[in-house]
Recover the amino acids of this structure.
């Protein structure tokens, strides 16, 4: 991040985001062709305003997976893939079956999935087994030595994976492989994170709705539609608000291209050809406020669901946090730990840059922080500080047992304020 962008961002408390109507009146989905496109431009034009865009295949042309996983005719290279992953267990979803608002999954050996895929193609893209889709495979975590791709700098300020890499529990980097006709039902990404998706080969069709439009796509019971192309949406008795919904943004993503999906944009995705893609969920200071709003909404939903026991349970508030974590994957205590790790990494980095830490400290810090620079680290700290201030005025957060927190937010907030004074 350059100095000008940093000083502009330091004046922000609430990040200004254009309405969808303003976006549609002035933009279509921008296509970024040349590799000399700067991070600062992406930051100001897409991350902060929360707008989608597409990067050309030039940004993936050096990836090993595009060289080795694809045949000369642009199809998946099954032979090479089997050499690398033959007996690996992989998660496979059945696109023809519905389980709540997703597809049920099973674990199969990779070679069994490829055998199915070959037969599916030979049978004219049909099978009595249904349309199977290998998805959410943590290949990067399982095979880091393969070095099949590199995360573009635009998506490198990735707090989600930085945190889970630190605690060595999980990650949100995935490989998807599916035949023509495989698809993903309507959804928004985990924690309302950003996502980026790169087609190694094949083509996808994306239908995207901006934040807020999903409320018109709920049935009379408040349940989100499973398939936004389903005729049932025309039934006003079941979907009374559908006629208020805007038309979705439709994007055809070609082989090699990368799509940036903004925070909180619900979407549905189809594979128009036999397709392999790399997908990351990620978030940072630009959409941290959206994540915090999402978590508050999730907790409120739990509290409404079990409100009848509020006066009869001494541990009702703690119980709400437990249910929230089981449903959402995180509670307020872990969110606090998440902010602590992100902030401490940047405080250490700024100390190293100023020469106040021990010699050699910089060698142990993230290459990403070094690439993005101290101005970006300071912006990150400013955003963490803002959310900490919000949390410290939140009644539900203040009800947490202080001994259950990995650090005291007040202390972390003061550290950040001290560091920001030096940075500014």
């Amino acid at each position: 991040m350059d100095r000008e962008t940093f000083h502009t961002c330091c004046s922000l408390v609430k990040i200004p985001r254009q309405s969808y109507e303003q976006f549609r009146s002035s933009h279509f989905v921008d296509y970024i062709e040349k590799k000399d496109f700067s991070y600062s431009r992406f930051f100001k034009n897409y991350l902060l305003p929360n707008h989608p865009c597409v990067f050309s295949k030039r940004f993936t042309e050096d990836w090993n997976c595009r060289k080795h996983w694809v045949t000369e005719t642009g199809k998946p290279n099954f032979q090479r893939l089997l050499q690398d992953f033959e007996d690996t267990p992989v998660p496979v979803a059945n696109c023809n079956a519905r389980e709540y608002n997703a597809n049920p999954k099973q674990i199969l050996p990779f070679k069994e999935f490829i055998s199915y895929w070959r037969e599916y193609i030979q049978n004219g893209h049909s099978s009595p087994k249904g349309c199977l889709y290998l998805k959410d495979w943590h290949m990067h975590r399982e095979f880091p030595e393969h070095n099949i791709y590199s995360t573009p700098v635009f998506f490198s300020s990735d707090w989600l994976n930085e945190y889970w890499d630190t605690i060595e529990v999980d990650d949100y980097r995935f490989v998807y492989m599916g035949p023509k006709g495989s698809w993903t039902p309507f959804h928004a990404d985990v924690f309302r994170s950003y996502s980026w998706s790169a087609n190694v080969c094949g083509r996808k069709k994306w239908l995207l709705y901006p934040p807020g439009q999903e409320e018109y796509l709920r049935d009379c019971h408040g349940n989100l539609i499973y398939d936004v192309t389903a005729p049932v949406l025309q039934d006003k008795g079941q979907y009374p608000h559908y006629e208020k919904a805007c038309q979705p943004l439709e994007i055809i993503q070609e082989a090699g291209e990368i799509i940036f999906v903004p925070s909180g944009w619900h979407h549905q995705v189809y594979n128009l050809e036999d397709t392999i893609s790399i997908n990351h969920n990620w978030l940072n200071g630009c959409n941290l406020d959206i994540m915090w709003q999402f978590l508050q909404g999730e907790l409120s939903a739990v509290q409404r669901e079990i409100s009848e026991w509020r006066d009869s349970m001494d541990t009702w508030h703690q119980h709400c946090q437990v249910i929230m974590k089981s449903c959402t994957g995180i509670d307020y205590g872990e969110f606090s730990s998440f902010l602590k790790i992100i902030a401490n990494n940047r405080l250490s980095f700024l100390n190293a840059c100023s020469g106040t830490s021990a010699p050699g400290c910089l060698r142990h810090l993230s290459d990403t922080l070094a690439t993005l620079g101290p101005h970006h680290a300071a912006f990150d700290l400013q955003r963490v500080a803002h959310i900490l201030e919000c949390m410290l005025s939140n009644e539900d957060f203040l009800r947490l047992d202080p001994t259950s927190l990995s650090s005291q937010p007040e202390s972390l907030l003061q550290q950040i304020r001290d560091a920001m004074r030096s940075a500014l």
User: Anything to note?
Assistant: The first helix runs from residue 3 to 10.
